[in-house]
Structures are given as C-alpha cells and as structure tokens.
Amino acid sequence: MTVNENLNENNSQQGSEVVRGVIARAKGEPVETVNIVVPAPGEHDVVVKIQACGVCHTDLAYRDGDIEDAFPFLLGHEAAGVVERVGEAVTHVEVGDFVVLNWRAVCGECRACKKGEPKYCFNTHNASARMTLAEGDADAGTELTPALGIGSFAEKTLVHEGQCTKVNPEADPAAAGLLGCGVMAGLGAAVNTGDVKRGESVAVFGCGGVGMAAIAGAVLAGASKVIAVDLDPDKLELAKQFGATHTIAAKDKSEDEVIEAVRELTDGFGTDVAIDAVGIPATTRQAFYSRDLAGRMVMVGVPNLTSRFDVPAIDFFGRGGSLKSSWYGDCLPERDFPMYVDLSLQGRFPLQDFVTERVGLDDVEEAFATMKAGKVLRSVVEL
After folding, report:
1. Where is the Enoyl reductase (ER) domain (predicted)?
2. Is the pLDDT of residue 18 over 90?
3. What is the DSSP string of 87-107?
4. Residue 46 in contact with residue 160, Cβ under 8 Å?
5. Which of the following CATH numbers is that of domain 185-327: 3.40.50.720, 3.40.50.150, 3.30.70.120, 3.30.1300.10?
6. Longest dimension (CA), the chain
7. In angstroms, rounded to a whole number, what is the distance separating the alpha carbons of residues 225 and 9?
8. Is 222 exposed, middle or buried (0-12, 13-18, 19+ CB in 10 A)?
C-alpha cells in the first residue's frame, strides 16, 4: 500500500482524500510537490480530477510573492478535468462532466452583476473549505491558499460549482484548460474589451502567450490588418502563423520609431485598436500613441506595483478614443469557454497551437525557467 493509500484510508471517514500537489511554501523558494488533503465537498463544492494545467506567469508571481503574502500557495489555475464528486446542493455540473476551471464564478448579486456587468463580478464564488498539507509534512494541517481560488497543480482540487464550465469532452484537456486564464485574457482583450470589428486594424505589443491570443482573437473578429510588435524575431515569425499580417522588430528601434512604424503601416494614421500585452511603461506608451484618433487602447499585460504611465493631459484629451484595462479578457466563462472550444474543434480558432510542451507535475519549477526565458507560449502539466 502506498503512502497516499494509507493516508486516504485514515481520511476516508471524514470524506477527504490525499493527493499530490505543487506548492510554494515561502517567497521566492523553489516549488515543492507534496501530499495535500482535499476535503469532502461542501454543499456547492465540486472535486475535480485534473487532467492538465497550464503554467502561467501568474503562478510564478504567486511563488515570488508579487501578488499576496498568504503562503503557502497551492499553485495552478489554467486547468481542465473531470468532475469526480459533488456537494449535495450542486446543480450546475454532474459527476463525469468535462470542465474547464475559471476564476470568475459570477455571483449574480453584487453591484456589478446587478448593473448588468457580470464580467466585473466583485464577489466570485470559491470553495467552502481550504485544502491543507497532509500528515507527514512539517506543517501538516496548514491551510493552502489556492492560486486564483483554484489550485490545480494537483491530481485533484476542490472548487465551487460555479468555477466549473462544462465544455465539449472531445477537446484536448491541455489546450482547453488554457482558456482558464492566458488565452482567454488575450483573446478577450481583442474580441470583448477592444471590440475589434471587421475591417479594422489592430496592433499587438508583445507576442507571448497572451499577445499571441490577442492576435488570433483579432483575426477571428475580422481585422483586416494585424500588426505584431516584439523584440524577439522568432516570436514575430510565430505571430505570422497566428494570423499577423505585418510584424515590427522593436529590438533595434526607439519607442518613437516603433510608433512611426505602426503609423507607416496604417497610412500614417495609426490603428483602430492597440493592445498592450506586456504592461511595461514602454509598451503602454507605444500602444497609446500608435492609435488613430478616437482609437481604442487595451492594456491586458499586467504591470508591476511600481510602474507608472505618464502622458501630457493634452495628449490624453486630444487623441480621444478610449483607454481600457482588460480583466480576464472581460469574459463570461459560461458563454465564452464552450464557444471557443467548439471553434477550436471546428478548426476556426488555433487553441491547440498554444501548447508548446507537455510536462509532468514534478517539472513545474523547470517550466517556470523555460517560461522566463521566453521559449514557450505555454508549458502544460499533464496528469
């Protein structure tokens, strides 16, 4: 009998079970694969057996203490899997459903929801109990903070039923799970926040996973001209595969030269939509000034806590248009996840192409290093 089987036998009377999961125990320290206890589901909770989970920059930010200080964290949030157990009041999903997990389980009752803006829900649902470190760990019994309320670098996780979005089970879990964060953020930045329309021009600054999803989203929305801007020539070549019609190599150009290059590609006017998928002052400024008059700028790249974006007030006033941040691509998981999975299966959206490599649960720390080196769109942990 394995260690986990022994622990599970001890926990069986309480309805909990022990599985392996990846945690960040302290700020900046390498992640660990440990045994964790998944409690029995509460009334509206669901236990999901994880099949795949993407390795996202947000998980690295949790590990490095850049989001909050509630260590230890159970990392992982871009996940797909199968519903294994449900609480007695669960009606949203059933055992056996194939689901993508989301961190916007709309409450329906907060001020945003009541105003008809559930994409800004301020009170999203989470599981009623925390997972904990299992017996044998020096910190046994310590509650784990699940990344984005999910915690899916684990064989199983506990979430609220509203965090489960049922999608077509024919989808590859490694690809479908990416809608849970990065791909949806970029895709939604173009389609939802930027509201790209047929025939419009779009510039995307930064061609990582989120930026590439914004490019694919702009193409899907019918943009006639999609300009990819990045420092890395390899990423620019890949951007063409995702539908970019033009590329700008920013490595040897000043900020103003990049802006001028965008304008040259748009008859001197600038683009209808400019998307900053990096979130640093340089790319934010480039996106701001690369727009046509009354153009829309979208920031979906997450800035750090000290970044500032300063422009003369007359430029803000005089250029018109709109400046928007995009949270989760302004998505509604129940509406968007099934649709984009279906479009992928129909060959109309390249969701599968975002999976660069498939790794094991014990390879998360190595995947972080690969991600920081800019060598992947997404590493995906398969279980």
Report:
1. 21-381
2. yes
3. -TT--S--TT-EEEE-S----
4. yes
5. 3.40.50.720
6. 72
7. 60
8. exposed
Residue 304 is predicted with a pLDDT of 83
**Cα-only R_g, the chain:** 21
Predicted confidence band of residue 125 (pLDDT cuts 50, 70, 90): very high
Which residues make beta-bridge pairs with 166?
99
Contact 179, 341 (CB under 8 A): yes
Query: Considering the entire predicted model, what is its pTM?
Result: 0.93
Q: How would DSSP label each residue in 253-283? A: S-HHHHHHHHHHTTTTS-EEEEEESS-SHHH
| Residues 6 or more apart whose Cβ sits within 8 Å of residue 41 | 47, 85, 86, 87, 90, 127, 158
pLDDT of residue 2: 56
Q: How many CA within 13 A on the CB side of residue 353?
A: 17
- C-beta atoms surrounding 9 within 10 Å: 12
Over residues 35-51, mean pLDDT: 98
Buried b (16+ CB within 10 A) or exposed e, 296-325: bbbbbbbbeeeeeeeeeeeeeeebebebbb
Percent of the chain topping pLDDT 70: 96
**Of the CATH numbers 2.40.380.10, 3.40.50.1820, 3.90.180.10, 3.20.20.370, which one belongs to the domain with range 7-180+350-382?**
3.90.180.10
Token readout for 81 is 């899997």
Residue 220: what pLDDT?
98
Sequence spans of domains, the chain: 7-180+350-382, 185-327
Q: Is residue 213 within 8 Å of 241, Cβ to Cβ?
A: no
Distances (CA, A) of 332 to 117, 119, 239, 291: 10, 6, 26, 27
pLDDT digits (tens, 9 = 90+) for 303-332: 888 889 999 999 999 999 999 999 999 999
On whether the CB atoms of residues 61 and 77 are closer than 8 A, the answer is no
Q: Where are the alpha helices (DSSP H) in 145-208?
A: 173-176, 182-188
Write down the residue that tokens 């802006």 correspond to.
259
Residue 315 tokens read as 């430029």
pLDDT of residue 12: 46
